[in-house]
Amino acid sequence: MSDQIWFILKVLIVSAVLSTLIKYGGSSLSLASTPTLVLIVVFLPSLIVAIALWWRLYFYRQID
Asked: In the chain, where are the structural domains located?
């Protein structure tokens, strides 16, 4: 049970750090707001998760 609590705590800490970096450090990035950049920012997290899940499924099937 403590492993699950530790994992949740680590996720919360990383999330808080990323949120703080985005809030206070994001304005210092000089990026032009283009439709291409917006599409990349919106779809990249979903694409990364999809690739990670596919990769896990691929290796899981190789083990069986």
From this structure: 1-30, 31-64
